[in-house]
TrEMBL record:
<dbReference type="Pfam" id="PF01878">
    <property type="entry name" value="EVE"/>
</dbReference>
<dbReference type="InterPro" id="IPR002740">
    <property type="entry name" value="EVE_domain"/>
</dbReference>
<feature type="domain" description="EVE">
    <location>
        <begin position="3"/>
        <end position="137"/>
    </location>
</feature>
<dbReference type="InterPro" id="IPR052181">
    <property type="entry name" value="5hmC_binding"/>
</dbReference>
<dbReference type="InterPro" id="IPR047197">
    <property type="entry name" value="THYN1-like_EVE"/>
</dbReference>
<dbReference type="InterPro" id="IPR015947">
    <property type="entry name" value="PUA-like_sf"/>
</dbReference>
<protein>
    <submittedName>
        <fullName>EVE domain-containing protein</fullName>
    </submittedName>
</protein>
Length: 143
DNA sequence: GCCAACGTTGGC
DNA sequence: GCCAACGTTGGC
């Protein structure tokens, strides 16, 4: 079971909207590395939902409701070539205490997390150890 | 195949 | 609003 972190600008798509919609397609990823991670996701795996730009904090936990399929928001061009994938995410619950980027940066043991090392990547794996630490920091009760 | 120019993301 | 990081594009 892998864990993940996905980013969204709340202006474009927020945690609030994720909760209201329940299950939501995670579309619009146009980066090869991020797309590779999307394709590696299995149903039931969980991800931290991170607000970039505004908030800059982990606000909730989602889980994969449907594994990778062709991104319907992609313009496939005249030849109809599909390059990008998306998954469906389901809201599991909010972080009791959202974990901010500043806190993550200041926490020993989290220096190597992808969120910091590759700040522009919008989908990334989270190690078991980092997942456990962040759950603890955020007061997340479950797995 | 190299590399400069340019665009985008995201933190500050 | 600025800038660093970095991916993409296009000329050669």
């Amino acid at each position: 079971m892998a864990q993940w972190l996905v980013k969204s600008e709340p202006d474009a798509f927020s945690w609030q909207q994720q909760v209201e919609n329940g299950v939501e397609p995670w579309t619009g990823v146009r980066n090869a590395q991020a797309a590779k991670f999307l394709r590696a996701m299995a149903v039931g795996e969980r991800a931290f939902f991170y607000h970039s730009n505004i908030g800059k904090e982990i606000v909730g936990v989602v889980e994969v409701a449907r594994a990778a399929y062709p991104d319907p928001t992609e313009d496939t061009g005249p030849k109809g070539i599909q390059r990008w994938a998306c998954v469906d995410m389901r809201a599991v619950g909010p972080m009791p205490r959202p974990v901010t980027l500043a806190t993550i940066k200041a926490t020993p043991g989290l220096e190597e997390i992808g969120l910091i090392r590759q700040s522009r990547l919008s989908v990334m794996p989270v190690s078991d150890a980092h997942w456990a630490m962040l759950c603890e920091m955020g007061g997340w009760p479950g797995r």
